[in-house]
Amino acid sequence: MLLFTPGPTPVPEFVRVAMSEPTIHHRTPEFEEIFATTRMLLKEVIQMPEVLLLASSGSGAMEACVTSLCQKKLLSINSGKFGERFGKIAKAFGIPNVEIKNEWDTPASVESVLEVLKQNPEIDAFCIQACESAGGLRHSYEEIAKAVKNHNPKIMVIVDSITAMGVEKLDVSCVDALIGGSQKAFMLPPGLSIIGLSQCAIEKIEERNVGFYFNLKTELKNQVKNTTAWTAPTTIIIGLCAFLQKAKEIGWDKIYQQTKARSLACNEAMQSIGLKIYPTKPALSITCVYDEESDTLRKILKNKFNVNIAGGQDNLKGKIFRINHMGLIDISEISWVVNAIELSLQELGRCEFKGTANQVFLKHYFKLIK
Ligand SMILES: *Cc1c(COP(=O)(O)O)cnc(C)c1O
């Protein structure tokens, strides 16, 4: 079965092999060396002065960032399930929260953010997704982060880039916390989250000292010494180290270029067989198609053609399907996925199979990659 969901992504063989070694203890020079290498390689990818690894799924890092960096009032962008989560975290911790809510196909605008900031001078932290995975939407987080910092440089900018880190080169010039997760573009099992930190965020974390398990001050103190506050998820970190080494060998620029080409070519292919791309501004990590028959189509894809793609949640349940582009993906696999979607449409009696989707995909892919 080809796993093409936007998280979890498949774990490549070289990563599985690296993780199959006998368990080592986390308080050893041997593990500290692996941890140091992993931290260094991650800092190269995200281009931020500090990085922390937590034993949690991505939401744990979201929680840690909100509680550590927001004291008074949070502004969050809700254009989907994951944006909504920031608001829910604030509520769970009794942090006042203003939310800018949009349809799941609509990115946040600079104007709307500035308007709320002007009306709420007590806002001291801002949360947004780089890619809102619920509808495959790309927010212009760079532009918005810049406007937020121009308005008030003290506002902490938290960017959930769980489906953007390792997908494209991210501009972190106005970002204080950049969140990543293991099970997306880094192709690892779920259970490890990543937080890139700016100098301002480091200072804020040291000054505030909040929480227990997700106390970033405690983590910072340990992780700069290449160890962790609690038992480290050693196996996933060993896998991450192997993945980052391989990615460096291939070259991140090349990986970004290939991801982009797969994504844009896939969007073209879907449109060539009459399908509609859902978000008004698509993210590179996911192709999201709006289709009323998406659940039946996904069933055919799975049962007849061995392809597993994701559907929609909440109000988009049964209305969209989502194809993953994150990670190292063999062109023959995505090519088959695109082909199988056209075959499934024929099964539904909606078109005659001509191989159009695959032809358009390959034509665009190789035009972009040459
Ligand atoms: C996957 C994902 C998360 C993390 O969800 P977990 O289930 O906690 O790993 C957060 N934000 C976005 C945008 C995601 O795609």
Automatic annotation (TrEMBL):
InterPro entries: Aminotrans_V_dom, Aminotrans_V_PyrdxlP_BS, PyrdxlP-dep_Trfase, PyrdxlP-dep_Trfase_major, PyrdxlP-dep_Trfase_small, SP_NH2Trfase/AEP_transaminase. Substrate binds at R322. Pfam families: Aminotran_5. The modification N6-(pyridoxal phosphate)lysine is found at K184. The keyword Transferase applies. Residues 23-312 form the Aminotransferase class V domain. One of its GO terms (molecular function) is transaminase activity. Keywords: Aminotransferase, Pyridoxal phosphate, Transferase. Gene3D superfamilies: Aspartate Aminotransferase, domain 1 (3.90.1150.10), Type I PLP-dependent aspartate aminotransferase-like (Major domain) (3.40.640.10). Its cofactor is pyridoxal 5'-phosphate. PANTHER family: 2-AMINOETHYLPHOSPHONATE--PYRUVATE TRANSAMINASE. Belongs to the class-V pyridoxal-phosphate-dependent aminotransferase family. This is Aminotransferase. It comes from Helicobacter ganmani. The lineage of its organism: Bacteria, Pseudomonadati, Campylobacterota, Epsilonproteobacteria, Campylobacterales.
